[in-house]
């Protein structure tokens, strides 16, 4: 058994997740993200480390994307349409639906608002997503005669998955971002008991000790209530996908319990995204779906 890891991003840093693993001769790229803090060559992974000749189709057996956040998928259109990778790309159905929305929004902000040089176009995004093969959770997919992959529920955002890969008798798991604390619209990560030779896990908050989720929500709701009770207005900037849905459910429940009449408004750009989870009810755990 021979396993090699080439870390192109998210090693000793947060952002630009991209890890290339060679396992028994098969080479898999896990995630293809960008670093939002840079506007130079450091924004994208250095793909030349995969192949000096840039023959990526023969240097990789597949690309796997764990979820739609830009630090995990942001460099994908650049890698496929500019660098020329045309091999298989795998992600879950919700990720395939949501990734192009995130990518296009980023492109608009970058080019139309900031006036930066365009790294990839809207057409690049569309052409890139046409190459994606969507898979279901716990679906075992045979990439070729030797390599098989399987997605597991990660609980991070809608469609987020941890991926199991097996080549011959060797097996590994790459988690991407995952969450073990269920909330109002997502459950905790779930995975089978597996015999592995390698585990690559997200660890951004591994050493961080925080107050309980209940305590954080209580403090948040207390601050909001005090503000509106005093005639004030509360502005909550938040991610349109994931966090926004959670806050909407939290506030709606609190408003009902406290019989508050103050209206809650959502920005127009968020409205269409708020209902996307209901298109993928099969991706929600039972305790969330039927609660």
UniProtKB/TrEMBL annotation:
Concerning SUPFAM superfamilies, the annotation shows: Metallo-hydrolase/oxidoreductase (SSF56281)
Task: Return the GO cellular component terms, semicolon-separated.
Answer: nucleus
TM spans (from-to): 262-281
Q: Which GO terms describe its molecular function?
A: hydrolase activity; RNA endonuclease activity
The answer to whether the entry has keyword Hydrolase is: yes
* A single GO BP: snRNA processing
Q: Which UniProt keywords apply?
A: Hydrolase, Membrane, Nucleus, Transmembrane, Transmembrane helix
Protein origin, superkingdom: Eukaryota
List each copy of the Metallo-beta-lactamase domain by range. Answer: 15-232
Where is it localised?
A: Nucleus
Q: Which family does it belong to?
A: Belongs to the metallo-beta-lactamase superfamily. RNA-metabolizing metallo-beta-lactamase-like family. INTS11 subfamily.
Protein name per UniProt: Metallo-beta-lactamase domain-containing protein
The organism named in the record is: Salix viminalis (Common osier)
């Amino acid at each position: 058994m021979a396993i090699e890891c080439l870390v192109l991003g998210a090693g000793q840093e947060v952002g630009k997740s991209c890890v290339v693993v060679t396992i028994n001769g098969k080479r898999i790229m896990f995630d293809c993200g960008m670093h939002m803090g840079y506007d130079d060559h450091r924004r994208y992974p250095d793909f030349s480390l995969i192949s000096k000749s840039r023959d990526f189709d023969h240097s990789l057996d597949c690309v796997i994307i764990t979820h739609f956040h830009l630090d995990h998928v942001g460099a994908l259109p650049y890698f496929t349409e500019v660098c020329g990778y045309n091999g298989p790309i795998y992600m879950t159905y919700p990720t395939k639906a949501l990734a192009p929305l995130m990518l296009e929004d980023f492109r608009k902000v970058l080019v139309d608002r900031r006036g930066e040089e365009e790294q990839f176009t809207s057409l690049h995004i569309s052409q890139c997503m046409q190459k994606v093969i969507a898979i279901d959770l716990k679906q075992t997919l045979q990439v070729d005669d030797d390599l098989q992959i399987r997605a597991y529920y990660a609980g991070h955002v809608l469609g987020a998955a941890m991926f199991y890969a097996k080549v011959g008798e060797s097996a590994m798991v790459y988690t991407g971002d995952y969450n073990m604390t269920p909330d109002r619209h997502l459950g905790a990560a779930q995975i089978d008991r597996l015999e592995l030779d390698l585990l690559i896990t997200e660890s951004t908050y591994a050493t961080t000790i925080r107050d309980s989720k209940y305590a954080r929500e209580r403090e948040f709701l207390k601050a909001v209530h005090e503000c509106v009770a005093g005639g004030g207005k509360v502005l909550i900037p938040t991610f349109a996908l994931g966090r926004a849905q959670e806050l909407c459910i939290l506030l709606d429940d609190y408003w009902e319990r406290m019989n508050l009449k103050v209206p809650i408004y959502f920005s127009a750009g968020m409205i269409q995204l708020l209902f996307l989870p209901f298109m993928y009810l099969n991706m929600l755990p039972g305790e969330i779906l039927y609660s």
